[in-house]
Amino acid sequence: MLYHLFEALKDYDFPGHGLMGYLSFRAMLANVLGMLFAFFAGEPIIRWLQRRQIGETIRDLGLEGQMQKKGTPTMGGVIIIAATLVGVLLVADLTNIYTQLLLLTTLWCGGVGFADDYIKVFKHNKEGLRERTKMLLLFGLAFCIALIVCVSPAIPTDNLVTTIPFFKGNEFDYSWLSPFKGQLGVYCTWGIYLVLIIFVILACSNGTNLTDGMDGLAAGTSAIVGVVIGVLGWLGGNVINADYLNIMYIPGSGEVAVFMSAFVGALIGFLWYNCYPAQVFMGDTGSLTLGGIIGVAAVLIRKELLLPILCGIFLVESLSVIIQRAYFKKTKKKYGAGRRVFKMTPLHHHFQKEGIPALIQKPVRALPEAKIVARFWFVEIILAVATLALLKVR
Questions:
Q1: Could you tell me which residues come within 8 angstroms of residue 62 by beta carbon, excluding any fewer than 6 positions away?
Q2: Tens digit of pLDDT for each residue in 349-383?
Q3: Where are the alpha helices (DSSP H) in 152-181?
Q4: How many domains does the chain have?
Q5: Phi/psi of residue 123, each to 5°?
Q6: 55 forms bridges with which residues in the sheet?
């Protein structure tokens, strides 16, 4: 709103009227606004959640300090969503297609997560939304985003290429995956791209949802990922920077940097209350929103193939669950009793558990929750730096 107000008043000469024309200034302002809103609005929201007795239901899994979290307010993801929206609505270009799609993602994923938390808390149904219903709703969002990206004239898709290291020109052409040539090959390429977009968005949402199991873990790692995506969006939206780094120039994608800056600010403000010991949990309202924003933002700036590196924490968390379930079912069928690869999944709980028979026993002793979270943050920082460094690899 401020951006459009300054644009409307640009013909009037008053001090500072040109600041909103600088993408870097708007990104920094969005970050500060999101952070301050989350910081100052967080405590009243937490008190309201406590008065409504919106507390987390804890299953006793034998984890150290687990039962002490019983009754901690959940659905704190509304703080992240509200703070992000404040920063974006005030300083972003709301006519920009990338901003609009990210706003749609935030509200859609937030709505799905809120419905899930609402059923768990108010309806006293621990299962929440049925898994099939939740995935169907997220699939609907992913399909809409994929369709808009593929057909909208505001998004350049003349050549279906994306940024990836180790390839010539740091670009990968999706047409290389098509087994057909000619017009049929074009249709096949579009189909592959559409399926990939849907997969990325669903995988990111699921990955962040699984990662949200310790105080500050999902919020901290998502903030680090958000910084990198914001930087890549800013670089890709500037023709000079894009040419220097030999990455795709995408007109208008600089607004992704403004959105991600507000997003990171909101997460930092939320961490004030969510770091160990947490005063509030984000719930599915937050975790599904984090993954949706990250996945859609990466797709919009054509960096989706960098996500296995950048979102390595989310990836291994998801893989740990898949591997554990598959191995348990296989060994149960073979030996009559299921066996485990990890002591517990998702992976962060493996380091928090001891005394459980599993193929992987290290570490033997359980680690404190705060140390596990900090180490996961450190690994995510390494992955973030590696992602940016790999752009210079030819």
A1: 353
A2: 899 888 788 889 888 888 889 999 999 999 999 99
A3: none
A4: 1
A5: -95, -5
A6: 73
